[in-house]
Design goal:
Length: 502
């Protein structure tokens, strides 16, 4: 028989078994076989391993499943986020050109973001505006990766053979102080970097930093370390938009021409700089090195753009923020979105549940939502389903035995059976604060016993045991004590199951 979600069973030994049952789960796969692969359900006759798919068509079924899974994975990975404005080229050679940069009219934000693609190179090379700054990468985080010339002063036995002192002027952008360093290399080298601070006034915008490295023997030059002997490095100031590098020798490299024939100085991206003793000679054949430029939109701060009628380049599902270096502002997609925040509808929702680049926080089931996702537990489990939360805990099957002596369940005692079933239902509620304590359960059972007319409820031998339970809190009643009583033998599993869920 069944009493409102409670399974009742009367055994031949005269014991009524009352069990809390969860909602039934319908079978999908064969017993012992996986019924899911990632977020994809695998119903029989398909299967993921031998013995789990239909036998007569095993190779075909396995192939079909593999093909479907591959297509689903390809669909997920094929999701493309917008890069450039509609109808605009997105590449020049091997370099992606995201908006606000662009290659042709109406494809860039303003003239400062023009990229000129030179087809005379193979592959073609992009350059900033119409100048000679070679662009190698553009990021939407405000970084422009370029290549910049090295300053050199080289000698042989007859004297100076070549000299080069490069300079760079950026009309709208600035040199990244966070990503670059100033370096001089050589054993007879004096280098200076002079420039302007864009943030300073006209009378105080001069900026200069120097680096000197001297040595008379290669054995004193440490390999793989720029420590001041043969190599010197220093940081840059913020806000530099112009620089001029000069390098010279004090003794025309006299006595060291065999291992250090040149002096070098340059600004370089710190992550790509690695000094070695071979650099003293090898840099003679290198023309350019990587450097990072910081870019931003306009000269107004984020707050000014938000609180005025100034055009805001940040589009839907995005927000603006101030850069660490220089004026203007940058845009980024809101959490849960990805794409190009400078394009209309450029920030698209991420499916955190299927995107392999997102490490979602779910232990079992993940459900994508616009701009976010939720975690849940499968049937038979409870909890928040989160890795940093409660996770998913399997619901325990709660069973207790009520001795009926030699009586059968009939219409007269069915009320007591239903009351016991209701107590069991209260004890398996998921929320701990909604479940009764052991004392409350014992009190309800005592009420049933004293009000019932049937012999098994009027058994006075249980009174002392009930008083014993009523005198103790849930924390002090031990499972062994409960199991040793006649009431406990019938309810211990239920009560302790409730305690496990706290």
């Amino acid at each position: 028989m069944r009493v409102r979600g409670m399974a009742l069973q009367l055994t031949i030994t005269g014991v009524l078994v009352v069990a809390a049952t969860a909602a039934p789960e319908f079978p999908i796969a064969k017993p012992g076989c996986r019924d899911r692969c990632g977020n994809v359900s695998i119903p029989y006759p398909f299967g993921t391993e031998p013995g789990c798919y239909h036998g007569s068509r095993a190779p075909e079924m396995l192939f079909q499943f593999t093909l479907v899974a591959a297509l689903l994975a390809a669909t997920v990975s094929a999701q493309e986020f917008p890069i450039a404005k509609a109808g605009c080229e997105v590449r020049c050679g091997n370099v992606t050109i995201p908006y606000p940069f662009g290659l042709t009219d109406d494809c860039y934000y303003d003239a400062a973001f023009l990229i000129t693609c030179n087809d005379n190179f193979s592959p073609p090379k992009p350059f900033l505006t119409t100048g000679n700054i070679d662009v190698t990468e553009i990021t939407l985080e405000g970084k422009l990766h370029v290549e910049q010339y090295i300053a050199k002063d080289c000698y042989d036995a007859s004297g100076r053979t070549s000299r080069n002192n490069p300079e760079l002027t950026l009309a709208n952008f600035i040199i990244s102080d966070a990503d670059n360093i100033f370096v001089s290399i050589g054993c007879d080298t004096v280098a200076t970097l002079s420039g302007n601070l864009k943030e300073a006034g006209n009378a105080e915008n001069e900026y200069e930093v120097g680096c000197t490295s001297l040595c008379n023997s290669l054995k004193y030059v440490p390999n793989d370390t720029c420590s001041g002997i043969g190599c010197c490095r220093t940081s840059l100031a913020k806000g530099v938009n112009y620089f001029d590098i000069a390098v010279r020798s004090q003794k025309n490299h006299s006595g060291i021409l065999d291992f250090s024939p040149c002096s070098y100085a340059f600004i370089i991206e710190e992550k790509k700089f690695n000094f070695s003793t071979s650099s003293l000679r090898d840099l003679k054949n290198v023309a350019k090195l990587p450097m990072v430029v910081d870019w931003s939109i306009g000269n107004n701060s984020c707050d000014k753009v938000k609180n005025s009628s100034v055009y805001n380049a940040c589009q839907g599902n995005s927000t603006c923020y101030d850069p660490d270096n220089g004026n203007g502002y940058l845009c980024r997609c809101l959490d849960g979105y990805r794409g190009n925040p400078y394009l209309p509808n450029g920030c698209l929702d991420i499916d955190e549940c299927t995107d392999t680049t997102v490490n979602h926080n779910c232990t079992h089931r993940c459900t994508n939502m616009v701009g976010s996702y939720t975690c849940s537990c499968p049937k038979g489990y409870h909890g928040d389903g989160r890795k940093n939360g409660n996770g998913c805990i399997r619901l325990r099957s709660l069973v207790f035995h009520v001795p009926l002596k030699d009586c059968m369940v009939n219409q007269d005692n069915m009320r007591q059976v239903k009351e016991v079933a209701n107590i069991a239902k209260k004890c398996i509620r998921i929320r701990g604060e909604e479940r009764p304590s052991m004392k409350e359960v014992a009190m309800e059972l005592e009420g049933l016993r004293t009000s019932a007319k049937h012999p098994w409820t009027n058994d006075e031998s249980n009174v002392e045991e009930t008083k014993y339970l009523l005198g103790k809190s849930m924390e002090t009643v031990r499972f062994e004590e409960m199991a040793g009583t006649r009431i406990g033998a019938g309810l211990a599993t239920l009560l302790m199951g409730g305690a496990w869920l706290y």
